[in-house]
Amino acid sequence: MRCNSYRRIRDDLERYHGIDVNDKRVLRICRKLNIKSTIKYSNNGCTRQSANPQYIAENILNREFTAKAPNEKWLTDVTEFHYYIGMEKHKIYLSAILDLYDRRIVSYVIRDKNNNALVFDTVDNALLRNPGAQPLFHSDRGFQYTNRTFHTKLVNAGITQSMSRVAKCYNAFYLMP
């Protein structure tokens, strides 16, 4: 079961119920009842690189976040969202493509799994809605974007792929909500 930290539980017991108890005792009881905190510490990087990248593109965009015409430059990223049903934590993933010309969302897909199909479907939808588009396609080095099949899909559509360097997540800032 997930809830507040043992320190917060101790503070609530004292503040709202007048029960003065040692935090080690609350921690011991929480462990016995399998109560864990929902608070997580963030990892040191904002982008996890693929363990075995099959393809790595050059950073052609090079932080030039302006475009002179529609469908000239597209940014993409996958974002993880958390939500709760009762005390149970769930995740959903949003894959989106943004046109740098007018900051319009070209395509997006929401799924409960972060896999290659999520990104492939996002690109397929973007190409269906923008026939003939051949933008510079910029992403991080996530496992979906370094996949050889994904690169082939872009090449077959006449799209040039560009990738940020590892741990340079501020490039995805323009896409974040």
Sketch the topology as an H/E string, one letter per element: EHHEEEEHEHE
Shape: elongated
Largest sheet: 5 strands, mixed
DSSP, total strands: 7
Give the tally of structural domains. 2
- CATH level-4 homologous superfamily of the largest domain: Ribonuclease H-like superfamily/Ribonuclease H
Mean pLDDT: 84
Distance between the termini: 30 Å
Helix content: 25-40%
Strand content: 25-35%
Which sequence of strands runs across the widest sheet? 5-4-3-6-7
Provide a count of the helices. Answer: 4
Q: Can you describe what's shown?
A:
The protein has 177 residues and is an alpha/beta fold. The protein folds into 2 domains: 2-37, no CATH class; 73-174, Nucleotidyltransferase, domain 5. Helix content is 25%, strand content 25%. The chain contains 4 helices and 7 strands; from the N terminus they run E-H-H-E-E-E-E-H-E-H-E. The protein has helices at residues 6-17, 23-32, 116-129, 148-156, and strands at residues 2-3, 36-37, 73-85, 88-99, 104-111, 136-139, 160-163. It has a 5-stranded mixed β-sheet. The chain has a two-stranded parallel sheet with strand order 1-2. Strand 4 (88-99) and strand 5 form a beta hairpin. Helix 1 (6-17) crosses helix 2. It is elongated, with a radius of gyration of 22 Å. The protein starts with a strand and ends in a 14-residue tail after the last strand.
